[in-house]
Design a protein that fits this description.
6-stranded antiparallel beta sheet; globular; 143 residues; Jelly Rolls; alpha+beta
């Protein structure tokens, strides 16, 4: 049942984002509606953990990074695709160049993304993992 609830949560978040641009105004909006200490983010984090445990969420692995495309564009998340990855102690360049709305979910240690330790949904340009620790990332990427 976690996949159904995951899709419902992502659909609600993507619907609230709508056609907003990935910029500072969107960051403010997301901090108000889907903050790290809020219900949507906590639910998304729990559903990601459940999906990882049940292996439907992070079904692939390459170079120590588990990943999966959970939603293709024009499906449940509208104009977004939804990717989730799990990594530990990864540093280096991004794997894509398009903007995304990413949720970083620390699991252990002090993982950082774009120089920030925060666990929240926020727009990013060319996201860059740059810290030690284990974390999951749920990304809504612009199609």
């Amino acid at each position: 049942m976690s996949k159904v609830h995951f899709l419902e949560t992502v659909q609600r978040i993507a619907g609230a984002i709508g056609d907003k641009r990935a910029d500072g105004e969107l960051a403010t909006f997301l901090n108000a509606t889907s903050a790290a200490d809020g219900a949507d983010f906590a639910r998304l984090n729990a559903l990601c953990a459940e999906g990882e445990r049940d292996v439907w969420l992070l079904a692939r692995e390459a170079a120590g990074v588990k990943f999966g495309r959970v939603v293709k564009p024009a499906a449940e998340a509208g104009r977004f695709s939804v990717d989730v990855d799990g990594m530990k102690d990864v540093k280096g360049p991004p794997s894509h160049t398009h903007s995304e709305i990413g949720g970083v979910m620390p699991i252990a240690g002090a993982p950082r993304f774009d120089g920030r330790p925060e666990a929240s949904l926020r727009p990013r340009q060319r996201s860059l993992p740059d810290g030690d620790g284990r974390r999951r990332r749920c990304a809504l990427s612009h199609a």
